[in-house]
Amino acid sequence: MKKASGQATPLTAGRAGTLSGTVRVAGDKSISHRALMLGAIATGVTRIRGLLEGEDVIDTARAVTALGARAQKKGDVWEVTGRGVGGLTQPAEAIDYGNSGTGVRLMLGLVAGHPIEVKFIGDASLSRRPMGRVLKPLRQMGLEVVDDKETLPLTVRGSDQLVPMEYVLPVPSAQVKSAILLAGLHAAGETTVVEKEATRDHTERMLRYFGAEVRTQKTANGTRITVKGDAELEGRPVTVPGDPSSAAFLIAAAVLVPDSDVTVEGILYNPTRTGFYKTLQEMGADITLLNMREEGGEPIADVRARGGKRLKGVRVPPERAPSMIDEYPVLAAVAAFAKGATRMEGLAELKVKESDRLAATAAGLAANGVEAKIEGDTLIVTGSKSVPGGGTVATHLDHRIAMAFLTLGLVSEKPVTVDDSRMIATSFPEFRGLMEQLGARYEAGA
Ligand code: S3P
After folding, report:
1. Which CATH superfamily is domain 29-238 in?
2. Which residues line ligand 1 (CB under 6 A)?
3. pLDDT at residue 289, rounded to an integer
4. Is 326 a catalytic residue?
């Protein structure tokens, strides 16, 4: 799948025969961004194996290079030559973050502690997304927002005199938490983030691994995560595990297509990321976890999915949302085949992803004859034994909407078309190749 430029590239999924095989997916997107960024502010060289080479992460590799920390691929390994904490330098040009909300939000936190001026730009989707959620706390610490606005394009000026602070997250967002912690590394004193709902904790884990002091304390009011400022980080080897959010499409397809038997090896199985797999099990899907292990401070598993079991609709509670926030579109596709209704609650954050995913998911389902209803922040999908399909889905520059409906089309009566598949390259360039390796078929065009 090509770089997202030029003409939209529609793609059509038709009914698949049995899916089978054992595959691996590319590296986790969240961990890949963080490995490049921490490598950039560590001393020495950080060698990264299994880095996701999707466009979002490549944008971060370019960004750290523009900021003076060279990231380059040597053989199978990405090497980042770090500048030490506080050592990033003024880039010559604007940093183009393409489609990547994670990249730009974390990077705002990272540049906040440097006395440099940086302009961030992005594509139409990213330029609509709210940056106020990171700018507000970062401003309190000392970041100056040169043009007084909260969407890209945006110019900010950092400071080497950041003030540490305590911040209670108003939204359950690992991006906001991480931006503050990255800024906190550069402040004189301790910076604390309080989260009421657990969000992915890769930043905390990797900061510790690179030698920063990070304390996590569970209290009645949530979890307090404290980072010690004026930190020193040392470059470390990182192996990036497979992305559970990408594997979700393969596993969902295997669950839905009768007689399928698919194993995805080496998936990151951190409990802050596994809500989708837990939900599939509650729906009655045949999912087995094999070979649970720990690598590089993160839990890993091989996940085997077998297809054809009749699924049942379930209630997905709001507190589970952060652990499967990127998986709701594909869960909705699975729910379309379950007996009864699946209620997915607490989805406010879905509205501010690469698209309004709540609306885009419901509209895509409706276009393919599936009963879907939005009630406030809840999505209710009423399943059935067969889904008509035959619709064209508007993807709104959103990779996960495209992949979710290219999964639905493998089991619907008529083919499902997505209006554009280019954005898939931002997170999962191997999507089509891996699906076809398992037995799925896609056709270019509508
Ligand atoms: C991410 C956090 C999530 C997720 C995104 C990656 C991260 O966003 O949707 O794909 O790497 O921290 P929020 O933190 O805004 O929920």
Report:
1. Enolpyruvate transferase domain (3.65.10.10)
2. 30, 102, 173-175, 178, 199-200, 325-326, 349
3. 98
4. yes
Ligand 1 pocket, mutate which of 31, 33, 38, 102 (most atoms under 8 A from CB): 102
Could you tell me what percentage of the chain is helix, strand and coil, using 3-state DSSP and rounding each to the nearest 5? 35, 25, 40
Indicate the DSSP class of residue 268.
E
Alpha carbon separation from 34 to 10, 201, 288 (Å, rounded) = 32, 11, 29
β pairing state of 261-268 and 298-306: antiparallel
Q: How far does residue 339's CA lie from ligand 1's centre (Å)?
A: 31
Q: Where do you find CATH 3.65.10.10 in the chain?
A: 11-27+241-444, 29-238
CA of 324 to the centre of ligand 1 (A): 10
pLDDT block averages, 10 residues each, the chain of length 446 = 70 97 98 98 98 98 98 98 98 98 98 98 97 98 95 98 98 98 98 97 97 97 97 97 98 98 98 98 98 92 96 98 98 98 98 98 98 98 98 98 98 98 98 98 90
The model's pTM is 0.98
